[in-house]
Amino acid sequence: MTNTIVPLTMPKFGLAMTEGKLASWLVEPGQSVKQGDELADIETSKITSGYESPTAGVLRKQVAPAGETLPVGALIGVLADPAVSDADIEAFVTRFQAEQSTGEEAEGANSADTEPHQVQAGEYSLNVRDVGTGDDLPLLLIHGFGGDISNWLLTQDALASGRRVIAFDLPGHGASTKAVKDGSLVGLARAVGDLLEALSIPKAHVMGHSLGGGIALTLLREHPDKVASLSLLAPAGLEKAVNMTFITGFIEADRNRAMQQELEKLVHDKSLIGRKMVDSVMRARRLDGARDALRTIAAACFPNGEQGDDLRPVLDAAKVPVQLFWGEADEVLPVAGADNVPSSVKKHILQGVGHLPQLEKASEVNNETEEFLKERVPA
To answer: So where does this one cross the membrane (predicted)?
Structure first.
């Protein structure tokens, strides 16, 4: 990277993020870093995540101090080779900040195209965020029980290079229709199929997390022509066990403290669950019909406190490529479920990770998925 200056800017983790807090610097000016090294911690209303170095080099300047809240795209630091003079660094910072205001207006116009919007899919109105363009097959993201499109805030934009990436709120979740008529995996997979038709997508790569993984497997069984590949993150349907204490507590928690205790079961690093995240989940739970929708889905998918669907035969018969991610410290769906997949499935068992690999190990999941999708040749 000789004589190249690389700007470090406040990242856009996705969805409606407009600003972030530079919680702390992890690297001092003058320190050499490798690509992928964590340079800083960035805090949003949803999560705190590490800012990874885009390339190898030396952190020459911390433009923004720790503790400052900045808009997405704001310059926070500069990476450069030691051969670059301090004067050139200062000139770059001045020029970048002067030009930034010019670009903000154009970026604001573009961001309107990626805002979530309602799509009528069969009997449901689903909240959809659709980003990216290109000739590659689209990627559809299916979140888990009690989640919403924000579960993909570190995934969606990162994978939207050369393809559309679609995230949506399942029926009964987020800003989608709250009244759920059929909460079974079959019923929810039907809604996903209706969404693909409404978006004029005949075939897509599908990534599903937890319950969303079970829905993805069910979609493959019911509509194999619609699925080009599967990326499964701690998916439902691979064994009987499920932490019903979490499921029930997550549905019924009526105070922030109780909800925080349940949300902490989702991650290995409990510090990731901040007050703002708890507040956000509690606001969603108070919406009319939200708890009843989750009760309906839980009763259909987890009868008698166990997973009701055995989807192992789907993987045994799968004619599409499948990859699997699972945190070895998962407290919701035991990682032992990963033992029940055929050898054809590419497995990634992640150490020090709980039930949310796409948040706790975002870069690893994204990089592996990007390579996985590059290898796929659509039928």
So the answer is: none
Query: Which class in CATH covers the domain with range 5-107?
Result: mainly beta
- How far, in Å, CA of 125 to CA of 117, rounded? 10
What is the three-class DSSP state of 64?
coil
232 strand-pairing partners: 208, 324
Mean pLDDT over 133-159 rounds to: 93
Domains in the chain: boundaries? 5-107, 115-374
> Where does residue 30 fall: left (phi above 0), alpha (psi -120 to 50 degrees), or beta otherwise?
left
Q: pLDDT value at position 100?
A: 64
Q: Tell me how far apart the terminal alpha carbons of the chain are, to the nearest angstrom.
A: 40
CB 232 within 8 A of CB 369: no
Q: Per DSSP, what are the bridge partners of residue 59? A: 79
Q: Which residues contact 245 (CB under 8 A, 6 or more apart)?
A: none
Phi and psi, residue 194, nearest 5° = -65, -35
Q: Which helix (H) or strand (E) holds 90?
A: helix 86-111
Cα dihedral 170→121→237→142 (10° resolution): -50
Q: Give the number of other Cβ atoms within 10 Å of residue 20's Cβ.
A: 24
Q: Which residues pair with 120 in a beta bridge?
A: 125
- Distance separating alpha carbons of residues 194 and 138, to the nearest angstrom: 16
Question: Would strands 139-142 and 165-168 be described as parallel, antiparallel, or unpaired?
Answer: parallel
292-335 tens-digit pLDDT: 999 999 999 999 999 999 999 999 999 999 999 999 999 999 99
| Closest listed residue to residue 309, CA positions, set 207, 216, 172, 176 | 216
Reported as a single tens digit per residue, the pLDDT across 195-215 is: 999 999 999 999 999 999 999
Per-residue tokens: 49: 């995540």
The predicted model scores a pTM of: 0.75
Q: How many CA atoms lie within 13 A of 112 on its CB side?
A: 5
**Between β-strands 32-33 and 5-9, what pairing exists: parallel, antiparallel or unpaired?**
unpaired
221, two tokens: 């069984």
CATH number of 115-374: 3.40.50.1820
Three-state DSSP class for 288? coil
Separation between Cα atoms, residue 8 and residue 6, nearest integer Å: 7
Residue 290: which H helix or E strand, with range? helix 290-301
